[in-house]
Structures are given as structure tokens and as C-alpha cells.
């Protein structure tokens, strides 16, 4: 049973329905309302009987978020939770379109209404002021706290936020636990909403009435990341990543927090085709980024993940000059834009996990000639991708950051993969005194500051950053478009370590959870379908191709050994062709956690690509070609699961090929195997 509806929630429902309000709920200066541009969302902001700020949200006349409190708990003063009144409000609206330099789509529409609500505590709480800015879109909303300059409050030491989300409808949640030792690298859980504990965001919910929700945050800058902690029933409260300094966040006023966001849609497609977090970030701050080109790349990484080669020096060292040149030759022959070489630098010998003090980011090991390899790559029109594993030691990395980026620019290296391999809470940050080290969390305020420092420094030297073991993505790629990619979830590497370590529903869940935050370096293209000791993947061969359309990234790896790629010439043909940059992207079929089929249009040609991934249930789909350009005929080259294919047996290798002619409005039947997928290239003309 739901608890008794609050006065604020009752007011919001009455306002949305257009019914007369009871006398005790008449609008006055203590209540502020706002709507989305199409009127489907109605926000109510007020204070409750304990003078606590609360908000509620109604959608299409139905309560979606019940009365939820706002505020802060502090470590050095009275909490900013009670004793508030509304002192005023301001409204604004916008309807603009802006262009991405790269992305899932070229143009992004920003259409919203906005209200800034001003709160002030009474004299017992020293009259402290707190503003909350709400921004309502037709497909979601976000809000942030804005702490203005004020007497008596120069610095805020925040223990936690008192930001709540009281979900009104029952349903299913798709989530991974927050604050765990392995960060976000977990298998997603599917539970009732009231079965969630403490969740990382994005967390996705599908209500019984078909409404889809995704909770996250936007513009995480100089602040600790938030998690959602279930308090009771379906009431969730934010909790912030911890800090070694006692307070989760320490900020001088004035400052703004990150946005707290909810995507809202009637369907899975509406959840995915939603740019809420991007729109809540500031425009590009670093200027021209035309030096970064979306691309596909290869690397020696899989040989180390499987244990065939080593990162450390020795007889099985993976990063040798000879091997790098061999891979560069393959890349050049097959149209790959880059080569990633891990283990090229000093510091990999011994136990570096969670230590990292021995890593050099400018000095190569004896059997790898950095300058010679970079020059050889440039000669072959292949870009050498840098690799900076820190072992979680950001103190050591920050000390070398400037000379490292300067070196990479001089060698024509425009992309770097960073890494922060350490258990949660194991980030080694510089302290206040020389030589002092403080232990921080991967998504605490200090580490958030570090990641931004890396991106800003890299931008000075025209270097793009692909961060592994990162702080989660919150749409900052709009503001810093050299922040091209992050890992931040359980990737392909887990398939090397155990049979079906990533189950068949893992990727169809990622699409509707992790991928809502931004690009992921998932590293598809494992055409051999096996990890160490011939451990099989929970994937068909066609699914490995479908991943290039389901899991977006502006840098897409073909992660298998080059010998395996060469042994699958027809599959390699698709990988060579599929772009990494799109002008349009649409989810044309899919359900959360089950399957996802996209249609994406190449930004640099008239070609369309269709494909995606499936869970463990075989499916017959009929795909509508309504997205195609009218008046054109397309030749569709199809890679699909072969008859009887399944991830559970050696039949995972069965793949079929077809060529058909299609035009706008046609229907294309396709069968997806258990653990399967599909990939289609549509080229205009016969």
C-alpha cells in the first residue's frame, strides 16, 4: 500500500487535473508551480508542515514523484533541511538546437521551461539561503542547488544531500550496487523497485503502467558523485561518495551542485533517444576539436587480458616494437585508424594494482621504442593511442601529467586511454603536506577534480581521453568534447575470465542503463568467441557485430587478435565499414534488459546501419524501414544468426549472410538467436 498522499502531492494532482482546490491547498506565495513545454509534466514546489522544502511531479494527470524533500546535512553546522520558507521565484524558457562535433546524432534539441525557487531559513538557522533551479523538458526534468554568496556562510562542508525521489508507481528496477569494491563493474540486477538497496546511477525503472524512468545526474564538477539509497518503500534518497576529509563535499560559496535528473518516457525508445543530461551541461569550453577523428582501432590488449602476454617486462611481454609494427601493418591494411599499446611504459613490473608509484608516463621499457613506433604508425596513416595506467595513484599521475601530454602531442598521438585500477576507496591522492597521501574513492570530490584536470590538460595538447575505472559519465562530453569515452561498467574483458561471465542479457541491459550516461569503451569484435583456456562467450558471432550498433562509442575497438580477425573475412568486412560517428540514431525495436535494435545513419555518407543485440530468448522481429530516406532504394547487406545458432553451444559460430533490396516503409523479418544479434548495412542504390 502507498502511504497517505501529502498536501504537496494532492495540490500537484489537483493542478494537473484542473479541478478546484480545497481551501487548505489554495496556491499562495509558499507554493511554486511549473510545467514542461507540452504541459505533460507539472512540478509543484512548496514547504511541508516542518518547514522542509519539498517538490512533487505529476505526469499526464498522474502522480509520478510524490512529495520529496530537499536540502543538505552538514558536518560543521546546523543542517539545511528545516526552517525554510519560499521567498520568491523566477521563470525562463528556451527552444534551441545545437550541434555536436561527434556523437549519436549531429543535432540536439533543447526545449525546456525553467523555474528558480528561492528558499531562506529562519533566524534560528542564521537565515541561510538556498536556491533550487528546476528545468522541465517534455521527456524529463532536472534540478540543482545553487548556493549564493551570503554573510555567515563562506564554506559549506556537506556530509550528504537530503535529496529525495518518492516513486509513486510500482514496477521493476534495473541497477547495479553503488559503493562496492569493484565500482560499476557488476552484473545488473532486475528487481522490484522496493528491492533496490544502494544503487549506482543511471538506475532505470519500468512502471506497471508502461512509464519508463531513469535517474542520474548531469554536470558532475568539483563535487562527489551521487548514488540512490532506498530509505523505505519506494522512497529514495541521494547519498554522496565519501571523502578522506570527513565531509563528502567542501565548497566555497557561491557554487552550483550537479543536476539531479530523471528521464521520463512511455517506451524504451523514448528513454534512449533522450538528450536530457547533455542539455543540462554547458556548451563546449575548449574550442575546436576537429583534430579528434572518430575511428575504429585495434590493440594488443586482449593478449594480456587472456594471459597469453604480459604487461610486465619479460619473455612474454606484449608491448614490443616488433609486435606493434605488425599490428600497425594490419591496421593500415584494413582501415583501422588507431593502435592501442598497453604495457609500453615503465612501472608494470611487480604489484602495481592499487599502488602505481613506479609508473612513468614518458619513459618506455627497453623493448619498446616509443618514438620509432609512433613514426612508423604515422607513416602508415595509423594513430598510436597512448595508455596511462595509474594503478589508482593520481598523485603520481598529476606530477607527470603536463610533460606526458606534451610528449604525446609531439609524437602525433591524439588519444590516450587512462586507467585507475584499484579497489573502491583505493585512489591515492596527494595530501596537504609534501609526501602525504590520502585515500579517496573513485567518484569522490577529489577524484572528480582529478579527472577534469586530466581532460583540461589534455585539451591544451590536442589529446582526447578515454577513461577506464572512471568517474561516471554525466554529459560533460558536451563541455569538454575531448572527453570521448569511458568504461564505467562490466566490459568485454570479463569474458576472458569465466564462462558466460557476462550473461546474454548483459549488453541488452547496458543499452538502457549505463549507456544512458554516455559513450562506453566496451571493446566489441571478439570474433573467436572465446577467452582464456577456450572459455566461451555468451554471444553468437552475429551479436559481436551487433555490438557496434548497440553500444555507442566514437572510438570502437576490434578487440580480438589480428589473426582471429583475419580468419573471419566476412565479419571483418562489416567491422571495416561500420562508422563510429552518426548523424541520426533511433531505437527501432527493443525492451529494457531483453533486446535492442538500432538504426543509425552515417554522418559522412548516405548509408544507414541497423543492428543490435538479444538476450537468452530467441525472437522473431519485423523491423520497419520507416527511417529510410524517401524516394531511395537501398541494397541491404545482412549479417545474422544462422539457423540453430545459440550462445549455449558451439552453434554460437553459426552466421548467415543475405543481400536484399529495401526502401522506406518496407518490413524486414529477422530472427535473433539466444544470445544473438544482427548487423545490416544499407547503401543507397542497387
The shape is globular
Number of domains: 2
- Give the helix level as a range of percent: 10-25%
Number of strands: 38
Please, how many helices? 12
Query: Could you name the CATH topology of the largest domain?
Result: TIM Barrel
Q: List unreliable stretches of 5+ residues.
A: 19-28
> What portion of residues belong to β-strands?
25-35%
User: Largest sheet, if any?
Assistant: 10 strands, antiparallel
Describe this structure in words.
About 1% of the residues have low confidence. The chain has 2 domains: 226 residues, Distorted Sandwich (Beta-galactosidase, Chain A, domain 5); 286 residues, TIM Barrel, CATH 3.20.20.70. It contains 12 helices and 38 strands. The strands form 7 sheets. Strands 6, 7, 8, 9, 12, 13, 15, 16, 20 and 21 form a 10-stranded antiparallel sheet that branches. Strand 8 and strand 9 form a beta hairpin. Helix content is 16%, strand content 35%.
Which helices and strands appear, and what pairs or packs with what?
Layout: H1 7-17, E1 32-35, E2 41-47, E3 53-59, E4 62-69, E5 72-74, E6 84-99, E7 107-121, E8 129-137, E9 140-147, E10 155-161, E11 164-167, E12 171-175, E13 189-192, E14 198-199, E15 203-207, E16 212-218, E17 226-232, E18 235-240, E19 249-252, E20 255-256, E21 259-265, H2 268-272, H3 276-279, E22 295-299, H4 301-306, H5 321-334, E23 338-340, H6 370-379, E24 383-389, H7 394-410, E25 415-419, E26 427-430, E27 437-440, H8 445-460, E28 464-467, E29 483-486, H9 506-510, H10 541-550, E30 555-557, H11 562-566, H12 569-577, E31 582-591, E32 595-602, E33 608-614, E34 619-624, E35 633-641, E36 655-663, E37 667-672, E38 677-684
Parallel strand pairs: 22-23, 22-30, 23-24, 24-25, 25-28, 28-29
Antiparallel strand pairs: 1-2, 2-3, 3-4, 4-11, 5-10, 6-7, 7-8, 8-9, 9-20, 9-21, 10-19, 11-18, 12-13, 12-15, 14-17, 15-16, 16-21, 17-18, 26-27, 31-32, 32-33, 33-38, 34-37, 35-36, 35-38
Helix pairs in contact: 5-6, 7-8
